[in-house]
């Protein structure tokens, strides 16, 4: 409707121009461009492509960072003091960088961002939460946090990132069509794209935007959210295939369970006005404690400390009956799942320690003043509980 009215005003403005056909031809071209650029699907496609590229770039950078982390640890094998120093210093530097960068560029980027986004959707104006500065701080800070190996998630902050991108893109589109503004529908679409692009789940993204971020959800926004989320998820998975991270376009985390045989059951932060030095002490202490406890040659050997968060998810989906291989030499094809086995400790004890330690570690890590979420750590803990239920003798 806004596009139609704008077109009518332009027709009235240029229709009776004295210079005839030249001006009329220019007016027709201008009306055509305004009409086309004002269509929703162009905005949604641009949003999907942009967020797919951002998500893939963040995953690629954080994966390379984790590879470097494990490579340094492996190269120092045999020298326990240096191994410990590298294991602790690497995530410490990344977490401190993330905290300091967000504090200096945009403190609004700290945390998940979902509570603030829900507040904005309910009509409260929160300054600087949907700006380009917050976008840059959130992306860089979250990438550093994920690349550190700390138990922090991506989904919550990425919902905020996608909403910022939708808001910034809508302002950019207004230069051409003059009809876009930051509205409820644009932010809810951004939420759907954030989840859909993060996990490759368009339907989950739309459901998330309905259930979590909106007091009500207009029916006309269903197709917008699903279209943008589908396009973003598709491009994100295509980029993974292009980078040879996956053979074909499949689910992000695939299960390998046999069908038909198994049943499934469904610290107070410092004030934002505090000096930067005090804001670095808390994340430094948290990172130091978590890295020390997960040090593989130390206590980490009893809780699969060498596995990064995504490796934990993939290994817990491996189709092995670990009770049969425990106490003997690990088979050649066990891969990363060998981290759950110890010659002197039962695999059930290791899983129990992993659950207990990761539970409080994840809770404390999400309170650090960096972009972080809790969904991925909760998925890991829930998956571990489900895996334990599937382990009668000869079960998994």
Automatic annotation (TrEMBL):
Annotated region (Disordered), positions in chain: 1-26
Keyword vocabulary terms for this entry: CBS domain, Membrane, Repeat, Transmembrane, Transmembrane helix
Highest taxon listed in the record's lineage: Eukaryota
The keyword Transmembrane belongs to this UniProt entry's keyword annotation: yes
Residue ranges, compositional bias (Basic residues): 11-26
Gene Ontology MF term list: voltage-gated chloride channel activity
Membrane topology qualifier: Multi-pass membrane protein
Pfam family, any one: Voltage_CLC
Localization annotation: Membrane
Transmembrane segments: 41-63, 84-106, 158-178, 185-210, 222-242, 280-299
GO annotation, cellular component aspect: plasma membrane
Primary localisation category: membrane
Keyword Transmembrane helix (UniProt): yes
Biased composition (Basic and acidic residues): 1-10
Gene3D superfamilies according to UniProt: Clc chloride channel
Protein name: Chloride channel, voltage-sensitive 1a
Species name: Myripristis murdjan (pinecone soldierfish)
Lineage: Eukaryota, Metazoa, Chordata, Craniata, Vertebrata
């Amino acid at each position: 409707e806004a596009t139609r009215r704008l077109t009518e005003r332009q027709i009235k403005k240029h229709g009776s121009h004295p210079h005839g056909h030249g001006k009329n031809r220019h007016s027709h071209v201008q009306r055509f461009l305004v009409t086309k650029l004002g269509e929703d699907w162009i905005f949604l496609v641009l949003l999907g492509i942009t967020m797919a590229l951002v998500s893939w770039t963040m995953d690629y950078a954080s994966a390379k960072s984790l590879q470097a982390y494990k490579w340094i640890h492996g190269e120092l094998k045999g020298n326990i003091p240096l191994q410990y120093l590298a294991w602790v210093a690497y995530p410490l530097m990344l977490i401190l960088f993330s905290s300091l960068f967000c504090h200096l560029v945009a403190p609004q980027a700290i945390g998940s961002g979902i509570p603030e986004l829900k507040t904005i959707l309910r009509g409260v104006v929160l300054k600087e939460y949907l700006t380009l500065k917050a976008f840059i701080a959130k992306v860089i800070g979250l990438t550093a946090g994920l690349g550190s190996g700390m138990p922090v998630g991506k989904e919550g902050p990425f919902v905020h990132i996608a909403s910022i991108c939708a808001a910034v893109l809508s302002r950019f589109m207004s230069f051409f069509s003059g009809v876009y503004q930051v509205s409820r529908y644009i932010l809810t679409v951004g939420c759907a794209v954030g989840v859909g692009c993060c996990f490759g789940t368009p339907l989950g993204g739309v459901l998330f935007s309905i259930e979590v971020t909106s007091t009500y959800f207009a029916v006309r926004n269903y197709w917008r959210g699903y279209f943008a989320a589908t396009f973003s998820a598709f491009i994100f998975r295509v980029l993974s295939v292009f980078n040879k991270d996956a053979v074909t376009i499949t689910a992000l985390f695939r299960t390998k369970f046999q069908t038909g045989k198994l049943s499934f059951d469904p610290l107070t932060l410092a004030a934002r006005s505090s000096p930067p030095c005090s804001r670095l002490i808390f994340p430094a202490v948290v990172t130091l404690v978590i890295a020390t406890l997960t040090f593989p040659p130390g206590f980490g050997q009893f809780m699969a400390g060498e596995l990064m968060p995504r490796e934990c998810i993939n290994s817990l989906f491996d189709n092995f009956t670990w009770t049969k291989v425990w106490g003997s030499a690990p088979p050649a094809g066990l891969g990363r799942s060998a981290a759950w086995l110890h010659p002197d400790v039962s695999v059930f004890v290791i899983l129990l320690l992993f659950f207990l330690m990761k539970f409080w570690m994840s809770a404390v890590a999400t309170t650090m003043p960096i972009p972080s979420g809790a969904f991925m750590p909760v998925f890991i803990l829930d998956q571990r509980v489900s895996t334990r239920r599937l382990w009668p003798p000869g079960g998994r």
